[in-house]
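Board notes, transcribed. Complex of a protein with aspartic acid.
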Amino acid sequence: MALYVYKFGGTSVGTVERIKAVAEKVKKARDAGDQIVVVVSAMSGETNRLVALAKEMQPQPTDRELDVLLSTGEQVTIALLSMALHQLGCEARSYTGAQVRILTDSAHTKARIREIDEANMRADLDAGRVVVVAGFQGVDEHGNITTLGRGGSDTTGVALAAALKADECHIYTDVDGVYTTDPRVVPKARRLDRITFEEMLEMASLGSKVLQIRSVEFAGKYNVKLRVLSSFMEGNGTLITYEESEMERALISGIAFNRDEAKLTLTGVPDLPGVASKILGPIAAENIEVDMIVQNISANGTTDFTFTVNRNDFARAQKVLEGLRADLGGNTTIIGDNSIVKVSIVGVGMRSHAGIASTMFKVLADEGINIQMISTSEIKISVVVDEKYLELAVRALHKAFGLDQE
Ligand code: ASP
Ligand code: MG
């Protein structure tokens, strides 16, 4: 007998028919002898609808009331799914976050889970019932309803799996797993059977939006085996797990990319102590996140300083720099470019292999693609290129690193 936590996202429970299909799937697993805890999201579009309703009432509703409102979406789904299970003759019981007692801190709309009381769930499971839990919500020590941030049901699923020491946490969604890259860009992209937590974090933060990043961090921390799979198709999906040494691994697991990038360069900056902080301090003070940073070697006492930001922050960052120019003295000029993209190769295999970077650069050179910036970490190499080369770069790298589907 195994214990599984199944999490179904909004599209998987988007209609009455789909909730019935989820119930069939859950019942089948229970009938096969497994213990099942189901975590559900609100029906698709529901959370957005509630947010819009709140905005109509008040431009800036308090976070406490927002949480009371937003948590209702999931409460609808747990009741409907439990009814669907009952209709199939499958015993089941629904729980809101507070009823389980998923204790969180008091940071409304972005609360963090502190503790989970498993007693109620355990009693139901032992009595042969399916436990249906509302995702995305908890309760703070004062009894206030809290929510975990958009996409937070993934985190609920993983947290319950950790608390119950489940054999696996299945995240059912509208894709059938994690792919080597976006299949819309590379039709030959392959579904991965396995990927490590670290790789998944790099892929997720680089724009492959399959899972809430926090849920992957959580799963890594508590060593919860996570599996991403389709609620509409049969298949084994992708298992996200720790590296297994005996596993025959590809050097590169995937190619991630991000279109929302912009680049700012300050030329002729005096090469003196404190200049980098003089530039990036005011940027941080404006709450603008900086990604890559490059400072050139200096010539004649001045240097060029380049960094990237999210494209949405481009205009604001440019304005901040304009304000700094006089302060930096010299003949500082500002060059902005918001038509760049970041392309990254990701793989734990590169830790133990030389020459991955040079292969990447050769592939791009052969396609006539100019690399504007480079940054590396232990398991990732990223380059910034002109946005017009995005598809070409991703396809060429995908092929060169042997990721194309035969
Ligand atoms: N319903 C919430 C949202 O739309 C939580 C979730 O679906 O994970 O963000
Ligand atoms: Mg989601």
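The chain has a mean pLDDT of 94. The CA atoms of residues 178 and 191 lie 6 Å apart.
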